[in-house]
Amino acid sequence: MASISVYIRDYLELTDFSLIPVLVTGVVMITILFQLPIIFSFLVCVLGLLATATFEGLVIYLGSYYDVFTEQILKTSIIQFSIFELVNAAILLLVMYPIQRYKLGFHTTSNDALKAYNFWLSAILIIAIFTMQVALVKLSTIHVVIPIILGLILLTAVYLAYLHNKKLWKNRRERLSKQ
Length: 179
Prior knowledge:
Layout: H1 2-11, H2 19-34, H3 38-65, H4 71-76, H5 78-101, H6 116-136, H7 141-178
């Protein structure tokens, strides 16, 4: 998600549209990895993006206060940008560990998440966002090919998750029928 954001924001200079692909890939990844319905995945993704932006802002503020980071240096120096991202990742891991360990937050059942319409909605979201990116980007061939490749990778991941889901449900039905 970070690579998609950096690519769209910094290389293509489409800062107005950089949040949309990150949001869509986040929702799809959360839906697939945590088996949540899309609406809950959207909620978790938005809350995660807000928390990440808050911590990034805090790190930039503290870094600029102590003359470690500035926005210009982060844009020009890959080493400074990498250090900035590592500090953010470390802080977010420290915050996420107790949340995951002690199951803090809201709970939902996964019965609705494994239904086929969530996979179809995920695929439609991916196709829509990458079609919009291809339509917006008129720079060169490589900048059109990269969103297409990313879209195909994400669509393949959604399809494989769907097949895995069908296999799990089939095994579950077989197990329940034997009882």
